[in-house]
Amino acid sequence: MHKNFYLALVGIAIGGIGFGLINPVTVILLEKAETPALLTGFVTTAGYVSIVIFSPLAGKLIKKYSIRKIGLIGFFIWTTGALAHIYWYNYPVLLTVKFIMGVGGTLIFVSTEFIINYYSDDTNRGKNTGIYVVLLSIGIALGTLLIWTLEISDWAPFLIGSAVMFIVWILYFLFFEDFRFAREDSNNRKMRLTDMPFIGLVSSAVYGTMESSLVVVIPIYGLRSLYDTTEVSSFLTSFVVGGIILLYLIGYMAEKTNKSDLLSAVSLILAALFMFPLFQADFVFLVVLFFLIGGIVPAYYTLGLNYTMEKVDKHFIAEANGYYVMFYGIGTIAGPVFGSLMIDVNARSAYWIFASLLCLFFLLILRLNKKKEAAI
59 by DSSP, 3-state: which? Predict the structure, then answer.
């Protein structure tokens, strides 16, 4: 593999520390300040709105300029935005910062996934995508472990998040070997959204909805269930660590199994797991449950991405990654809003019922799509 491939993996692992630290800390600070859950949801959503807006443009920017420039810009924006979170108590400033950081995050994820897919083929793409998400999850897990730095000061986590992202910026600046992507074909045809596999787009949106809502729901659910900050941090860490351990196994299975069938199994298992908090809220039980959920939910993203890349031409991977991240962004806009609304309806049960029904809805879509493909 090219050194750019390994640098992208190292970069996303280190950057994951910032991803795993900034959002949960912001939610905890807002909750402790007695901010309404709906407002907390809207603040979190602000960062995802920019993902939807800019993700279709990211692939075009990569082709127009270069992957190195886009990556450096993305990491710089995120570094600056993380530091600006020290003004978390000022809602207009926080909303603006979240939106701008979403632009940086979009450029980071689209460029990183472009690099992973550019240096992969059908024989190793599933494994490489799995490694990418596992390393990201490791970084996020380390980030959640640093939530305790709130005890030092409310600005300490944001300073740490900014510093680790700046380290990645330095690595890219010093070691990334730049290249420009070749033209698609002799006709210079552009990829349209309608060229994307439908299941891949829906899978990305479902993952975005679940991931972004759980980041909001787990801290609020934990605090309103009378668990302290350290215990809530344990819930989040368990959620992310599950993604490290179980997702690699799912990625391995993806190389051996039909991805549509595996997505069906994932949906059915998650639909059951999301119902368990209705019956038990013991600390150890929840730690184990969030471990399992955290390990299986990201499969929507990795399996959907693998499915998508199998269906699209290699010349269009930049645009395909952009569209894929765009639908992830659409899901992340809906997630915090639905999650916070469900918490306000009933903090103990409403969200878990909603999440379970979402899994079953996606399972229905998979079955209908499979019948449609069989009929063609």
Answer: helix
Task: Choose from 60-64, 65-69, 284-288 the range with maximum mean pLDDT.
Answer: 284-288
The pair of structure tokens assigned to 1 is 């593999």
The encoded tokens of residue 166 equal 């700046």
Q: What is the mean pLDDT of residues 243-249?
A: 75
Region 334-363: what's the mean pLDDT? 89
Q: Is the pLDDT of residue 186 over 50?
A: no
Contacts of 53 (CB under 8 A, 6+ apart): none
Ramachandran quadrant class, 34 (left: phi over 0; alpha: psi -120 to 50; beta: rest):
left
- Structural tokens at position 87: 């003004």
Q: Give the residue ranges of DSSP H helices in 33-151.
A: 37-64, 67-84, 91-118, 125-145
Q: What is the pLDDT of residue 359?
A: 95
Whether this model's pTM surpasses 0.70: yes
Q: Are 220 and 38 in contact (CB under 8 A)?
A: no
The pLDDT assigned to 224 comes to 85
CA 148 vs. chain centroid, Å, equals 22
Joined tokens for residue 305: 């991405």
Cα(45)–Cα(86) distance, integer angstroms: 18
257: exposed, middle or buried (C-beta count within 10 Å: 0-12, 13-18, 19+)?
middle
Least confident of 82-91, 124-133, 305-314: 124-133
3-class state of residue 232 by DSSP: helix
Average pLDDT over residues 277-290: 91
Whole-angstrom distance, CA of residue 71 vs CA of residue 275: 40
pLDDT of residue 188: 57
Pairwise CA distance, residues 372 & 369, whole Å:
5
Nearest to 324 by CA among 203, 209, 189, 210: 203
Distance of alpha carbon 340 from the chain centroid:
18
Residue 109: DSSP 8-state: H
Of 29, 343, 42, 345, residue with least CA distance to 214: 343
Distance CA 53, CA 50 (A): 5
How many Å from the N-terminal Cα to the C-terminal Cα in the chain? 38
Q: What is the mean pLDDT of residues 153-175?
A: 92
